[in-house]
Design a protein that fits this description.
Distance between the termini: 44 Å
Number of helices: 2
Oligomer: single chain
Length: 468
């Protein structure tokens, strides 16, 4: 396993003992954001937002939460639209639109919070996504509200943000509700399908993901634009106590097979479906029975679909790297053994991440922004980092800081700008030396990432393919 700064650089096996020096009881090393950073990482912007505001009597995560409100982040890919979207969770919940038109200073362009914010219960706004449909730009915000307050069935709100930077032109288009699976959408993913549809794929509190055609939703479709569901495989919930459905996923086109592929992380592990026909998703292979993994958190493939980086959320858990090819080729029915692993710090664990082969950009709990190179998937190497949290070093040292530091991360392919959301310290943007943009062709890979080509569709997809 490769471990980043402050820890052992290499060990002999994927499974073994973590070794670190414990601080004396009651003594915690303090630091400020940017105290620990690599020389090849340049800070471009930092806006604190409101992540550090104290919460009155909140016991989310089982402890009293002081701050920790900033959640996920997304950046638009067109340089002519220099905007990022950052959600903030818990009451009062909402989101910020970040304006990066000034190369020297970012600012909050617009802030929104849900009506009657103080009486809503639960996590609130967790996940922003944006889509482009028929020349218009839409922002979707995924919500999770619980019993005891309103909007328990609210999954997402859709906004028209075409008119930015004129905030008077922002319009709420409508609200997606999931009355059959109350509890909202924890995560979502926007995807330009090979059939031409601009899709929002969401988690639910059931054993399936929902697929919405945003063009149909905007047009007032009585079914809210729901065009499909992607199930968990039968038996996936066996033994899983933390999660009963999907937690997160990636969707990408595979030019070699002409398949739209869904990479789902959830109960029992990780699953790959062919969703070319949205009415009939087909399970291609699974990654289950993995030591230390009862449920999958995040599942991110390489652009060619050969390897994948996975997360499972518990202390000391590394990001595990798997070879997907044997399962996809049918050589094995299921994959259970990783070929590599990486962690920023053996005390902590990493959260969301984005792939720009050979780099993986990571929002790491307690350790902020991290980048590792997985050119050799069996020996990933940390190449850059910037600590964004101002708290103590190590979640094991201070129990109530389990969830802090980096939450979400995104990359603008046109110029390589990296944006990160930190639970407490807000919005950050960076540039990594030598990384001035990304195109998969420069690395002998398909040009596939979480960034979508909304005008042309997936690279390699047959043109003029009829919509199904």
């Amino acid at each position: 396993m490769h471990m980043g700064r402050r820890r052992i650089r290499r060990t002999a096996a994927l499974i073994g003992l973590y070794t670190f020096i414990a601080l004396p009881a009651g003594l915690v090393a303090q630091r400020g954001p940017g105290t620990e950073k690599s020389s090849n990482m340049k800070l471009v912007y930092h806006v604190p937002l409101n992540g550090a505001l104290p919460l009155q009597g909140t016991t989310e995560c089982g402890v009293v939460c002081l701050g920790r409100r900033t959640s996920d982040i997304a950046i638009e890919q067109e340089l002519s639209r220099p905007y990022a979207y950052v959600t903030h969770r818990l009451a009062p919940t909402g989101f910020h639109i970040m304006d990066m038109r000034d190369p020297n200073k970012a600012k909050v362009l617009w802030h929104w919070q849900i009506e009657d914010a103080d009486i809503h219960r639960g996590a609130g706004a967790l996940n922003p996504m944006y889509l482009k449909v028929n020349g218009k730009y839409y922002l979707t915000i995924a919500f999770q509200f619980t019993q005891g307050g309103p909007d328990v069935d609210l999954g997402a709100i859709v906004f028209d943000v075409t008119g930015l930077p004129d905030v008077t032109k922002i319009k709420e288009v409508g609200r997606i509700r999931a009355t059959d699976t109350p509890g909202g959408f924890h995560e979502s993913f926007s995807y330009k399908h090979s059939n031409g549809e601009a899709l929002l794929v969401t988690t639910t509190t059931g054993a399936h993901a929902n697929v919405y055609d945003i063009a149909k939703f905007v047009a007032g479709d009585p079914n809210q634009g729901l065009v499909g569901q992607i199930p968990l495989p039968a038996g996936a919930n066996a033994g899983s106590i933390q999660i009963r459905g999907y937690h997160d996923f990636f969707i990408g086109y595979d030019p070699a097979t002409h398949q739209d592929r869904f990479y789902g992380a959830g109960a029992g592990g990780y699953y790959i479906y062919d969703i070319t026909n949205l009415k009939e998703p087909k399970l291609l292979t699974s990654l289950t029975g993995i030591n230390g993994v009862q449920f999958g958190h995040t599942f991110t493939p390489t652009p060619d679909g050969h390897y994948a980086v996975t997360e499972v959320e518990y202390r000391t858990a590394p990001l595990r790297i798997f070879d997907l090819k044997p399962g996809l080729d049918g050589t094995v029915a299921n994959t259970s053994r990783p070929i590599g692993a990486w962690t920023a710090n053996a005390k902590n664990f990493s959260h969301n991440h984005q792939m720009r082969w050979p780099y993986v950009f990571v929002a790491a709990f307690d350790d902020g922004m991290q980048v590792f190179n997985m050119m050799d998937p069996t020996n990933p190497v940390t190449v850059a980092f910037y600590d964004t949290w101002d708290g103590p070093d190590g979640t094991l040292a201070v129990n109530e800081t389990t969830f802090n530091g980096g939450w979400g991360i995104d990359v603008r392919n046109a110029d390589g700008l990296i944006v990160l959301s930190d639970f407490t310290t807000g919005f950050w943007a960076f540039k990594m030396e030598g990384f001035d943009g990304w195109n998969g062709h420069d690395w002998g890979m398909p040009n596939i990432s979480n960034a979508q080509d909304w005008d042309n569709g997936p690279e390699g997809a047959p043109k003029n393919k009829p919509v199904t």
